[in-house]
Design goal:
By secondary structure, this protein is of the alpha+beta class. It is 34% helix and 26% strand. It folds into three domains: 266 residues, Bira Bifunctional Protein, Domain 2 (BirA Bifunctional Protein, domain 2, 2-Layer Sandwich), CATH 3.30.930.10; 65 residues, Herpes Virus-1; 94 residues, Rossmann fold (3-Layer(aba) Sandwich), CATH 3.40.50. A seven-stranded mixed sheet has the order 3-9-10-16-13-12-11. A five-stranded mixed sheet has the order 20-19-21-22-23, with helices on both faces. Bound molecules: adenosine-5'-triphosphate (ATP).
């Protein structure tokens, strides 16, 4: 992990947030390459799950919503994690995480699965004699801690101005359900998709960009007609399960890096009847990457009943009126970035022929569509006669591909730099180019080089990048 964090900072993927002021705990800024990576992920996701499908529409709801939304959705009363506090230093921990850690460090302990139940957690902390990991102090009894982040609106500071930043994008899609049906005339089944920020006052953020208090989600609420039997919702759930696996492999994640966890009944979120967590083998352990939940009609029913708005769907053919049920595939953007970076990170030994000393080459083997820079133009010399041709070529390529131009340092170092940021193709312009109007194209993964006429270059790269 340290290697990825340091490469990400050095090359401009991810920087510590507010760094010049000493940072802000667990806040991260995305640099030039990280922004490209994130944008590529969001654009590909949108194209795949929204633009290319006739049964999906998009939405961008406000981040701040009426507090009644969070009361009806159950977040005010239920959206919490178990917290324990140290009596001595007052540091706070996720109660379930410290029990999990204890069991990992003491694998011989006989124990049932760790759950979020406060009574069980309290019993475990006591019977395992778990103390504060910072000062050794005694831990207080666990309590539920609400994860919603509060702020206040307007200049007055009374209670009525308190609002929450949304902890998930989902509710924007439920409260706009009627607007969307009325304006788009969509028939079931159909989905609403949204990409946007969410905020959670996490007790223990950490593991780099894995758990932060501000993050982005790509979520889909897929509405289906009233299931007459379990098989009706299970079929759609299964379709989305497959879609999610295909997306992960498109992202460059290998199938054996992902594991499905069928969330046990007692750990299901308050709205869910079934949830699968897609867990990824991060360098710090196997953790949730994405989730897929069957939310039943919980949200539409609650919003319909609490707001008084008619959120039922009317089937014009049968005349039936009901609250549609919902399958929810949810994807974290930062966790997508992190998993894609971990899967792409490769170390290779190169140049072990007799004349050359062998060295380690670090390559980010992103799929081409994901690579933040697609092509780099590298003139062999900084001399004006070469650099002017190379610059012109880079400007021309930039109209179609994200293109980098680099003329400093040796060509070997420049190749290494492009390998480290995952650029699929490097184009070198040499003195022969001035006569034969051709350039050398180097493939990132095979390191093979090919001579290509400048006039054919765009076509060549388009075909290669589409492979
Ligand atoms: P966890 O168990 O890791 O706290 P969760 O089950 O609470 O996650 P969901 O409520 O299902 O997560 O959120 C949907 C997705 O949003 C997650 O699968 C994950 O990709 C992302 N996500 C959730 N919390 C965070 C966070 N604090 N930082 C970054 N991404 C997050």
């Amino acid at each position: 992990m340290e290697k990825i964090i340091s490469l990400a900072k050095q090359r401009g993927f991810i920087f510590p947030g507010s760094e010049i002021y000493g940072g802000l705990q667990n806040a991260w800024d995305f640099g030039p390459l990280g922004t490209e990576l994130k944008n590529n992920i969001k654009a590909a996701w949108w194209k795949r799950f929204v633009s290319r499908r006739g049964d999906m529409v998009g939405l961008e709801a406000a981040l701040l919503m009426n507090t009644k939304v969070w009361e009806a959705s159950g977040h005010v009363s239920n959206f919490s994690d178990p917290l324990v506090e140290c009596e001595k230093c007052h540091h706070r921990f996720r109660a379930d995480h410290i029990v999990e850690k204890y069991l990992k460090d003491n694998p011989d302990t006989i124990h049932e699965a760790v759950s979020a139940d406060l009574v069980k957690l309290s019993r475990d902390i006591e019977s395992f004699h778990i103390n504060c990991s910072d000062c050794g102090g005694k831990l207080m009894s666990p309590q539920q801690f609400n994860l919603m982040l509060k702020t206040s609106l307007g200049a007055t500071a009374d209670k009525t101005s308190d609002v929450y930043f949304r902890p998930e994008t989902a509710q924007g899609m439920f409260v706009n359900f009627k607007n969307i049906i009325d304006s788009t005339r969509k028939k079931l089944p159909f989905g609403i998709a949204q990409i946007g920020k969410a905020f959670r006052n996490e007790i223990t953020p950490g593991n780099y960009i894995f758990r932060t208090r501000e993050f982005e989600q790509m979520e889909i609420e897929y509405f289906i007609s009233l299931p007459k039997k379990d098989a009706d919702w299970e079929r759609v759930f299964e379709e989305w399960r497959k879609e999610m696996h295909e997306w992960m492999s498109y992202l460059g994640i290998k199938p054996d890096e992902v594991h499905e966890l069928d969330v046990p009944k007692e750990d299901l979120a308050h709205y869910s009847k079934k949830t699968i967590d897609f867990e990824y083998d991060f360098p710090f352990g196997r953790k949730e990457l994405y989730g897929l939940a069957y939310r039943t009609d919980f949200d539409l029913r609650n919003h319909g009943e609490k707001s008084g708005a008619n959120l039922k769907y009317k089937d014009n053919e049968t005349g039936e009126e009901y609250y549609p049920h919902v399958i929810e595939p949810t994807f974290g953007v930062e966790r997508s970035v992190l998993a894609a970076m971990c899967s792409a990170y490769t170390e290779e030994t190169v140049g072990n022929s007799d004349e050359e000393e062998s060295e380690t080459r670090i390559v980010m083997k992103f799929p081409s569509w994901l690579a933040p820079v697609k092509v780099a133009v590298l003139p062999l010399s900084k001399k004006d006669e070469l650099s002017s041709v190379a610059r012109k070529l880079a400007d021309d390529l930039r109209t179609e591909f994200t293109t980098d131009y680099d003329e400093t340092q040796s060509i070997g170092k420049r190749y290494r730099r492009q390998d480290e940021i995952g650029t699929p193709y490097c184009v070198t312009v040499d003195f022969d180019s001035l006569n034969d109007n051709a350039v050398t194209v180097r493939d990132r993964d095979t390191m093979k080089q090919e001579r290509i006429a400048i006039s054919d270059l765009k076509k060549y790269l388009s075909e290669k990048l589409a492979e």
